[in-house]
Predict the 3D structure of the following.
Amino acid sequence: MSLLRTFGNRIIEARQRQARAQVNAILRSWNPELRQRVSWDEDHVNSSVYL
């Protein structure tokens, strides 16, 4: 049972890293004006990076 749980956790962690990378790519593609309208400054975007 432990082996299956470990395997499942690794799959979940890999998917989370993948999702974070996609979100970060989207955030970085936003122009500064759009980030300002949604109250996200460059420091906030940089602090949200999960690679």
Remarks:
- DSSP finds three helices and no strands in the chain.
